[in-house]
Design a protein that fits this description.
It contains 10 helices and 14 strands. By secondary structure, the chain is of the alpha/beta class. The structure holds adenosine-5'-triphosphate.
């Protein structure tokens, strides 16, 4: 599967949620699609699933446009944060309806997962708890067998054991039947081990797209006296800078270059830390 995003912008009435983003994703792969609150993730996922149209630019999957092209959309399953299912239907009816929509639907897997998540097929969607609703979304995503399966915060209300079941299923499915999985979550520490590639949106723009290997090799925090740090990082791409108690922290992309300098410290940057930095940066800008 190949997703091509070309110069895509999306504006709501008073808000430009996506600002001219372009990138390509090729799978099978598990992608971590990350960013602070309001960065534009759900907007992009809605565009990719053909649910809304772009204001400018184009998104295609394997060369076909996604908006208003039903055939393409049958190979994209978007499990949104909420409102995935009709309240008056039972679980069994919901799964049946999905089996008609997704041509590669795996009914056996759906039945198996109902047991794993202890859901009763006779229960109405209206009667489900938040966690049960999330479980139904997870079952739909996996059973759809869609070439692109998107989970947007798939585990609201699920306890840690059920979340671990989700992570195990993701690995199992990716091994047995590789697909392009896109996972958007704020529980980054938990999920980061699963990601093969990471995309980070920041204030409606693509801030970074890296494989996990590139991340570990190239993204580093440089800390120390401001003038020493500035000297050491000169010419490098700076992702974030913050001074606290006369110590400057700069997160940089080294692009394979070694960083040298006196009285500086180099530290690895976890995904979770990066997202915390970016969210701080956004708040600092909002305050100014
Ligand atoms: N239907 C809408 N009408 C107006 N503005 C919207 C609409 N949907 C989203 N926005 C705005 O667009 C921006 C991006 O929102 P979006 O939901 O895509 O972000 P997000 O990264 O998914 O955030 P979160 O992690 O909080 O779910 C936000 O400023 C949001 O307020």
């Amino acid at each position: 599967m190949k997703i091509e995003v070309k110069n895509v912008s999306k504006s709501y009435r008073h808000k430009e949620a996506l600002k001219n983003i372009s990138f390509t994703i090729e799978g099978p792969k598990i992608i971590g699609f990350l960013g602070h609150n309001g960065a534009g993730k759900t907007t992009f996922l809605n565009l990719l699933s053909g649910l809304i149209s772009t204001t400018k630019g184009n998104i295609s999957v394997n060369g076909e446009n996604v908006f208003n092209v039903p055939l393409t959309l049958r190979d994209i399953c978007f499990v949104a944060e909420n409102e995935n299912f009709q309240e008056e239907m039972t679980i069994a009816q919901t799964l049946k309806a999905n089996s008609f929509f997704y041509p590669k639907w795996d009914g056996e897997l759906a039945m198996e997962l109902l047991e794993v998540f202890a859901l009763n097929p006779k229960d109405k969607v209206r009667s489900l708890s938040k966690g049960m609703m999330s479980a139904l979304g997870i079952i739909t995503g996996f059973a759809s067998n869609a070439g692109i399966t998107i989970f947007d915060e798939p585990y609201i209300g699920l306890d840690v054991a059920a979340r671990n079941t989700f992570y195990d299923l993701l690995i199992e499915q990716q091994t047995d039947n590789p697909r392009l999985f896109i996972l958007s979550t704020h529980l980054i520490d938990e999920a980061s081990k699963l990601f093969e590639e990471i995309l980070i949106l920041h204030e409606g723009q693509l801030m970074l797209q890296k494989t996990v290997e590139e991340w570990h090799e190239n993204i580093v925090a440089v800390k120390g006296n401001p003038s020493d740090v500035e000297q050491a990082i000169s010419g490098l791409k700076i992702i974030y800078k913050h001074t606290f108690m006369q110590e400057l922290t700069a997160i940089v992309f080294t692009d394979g270059q070694s960083i040298e300098g006196q009285n500086i410290m180099l530290e690895p940057v976890s995904l979770q830390d990066m997202l915390v930095y970016l969210s701080k940066q956004q708040k600092e800008r909002a305050i100014k």
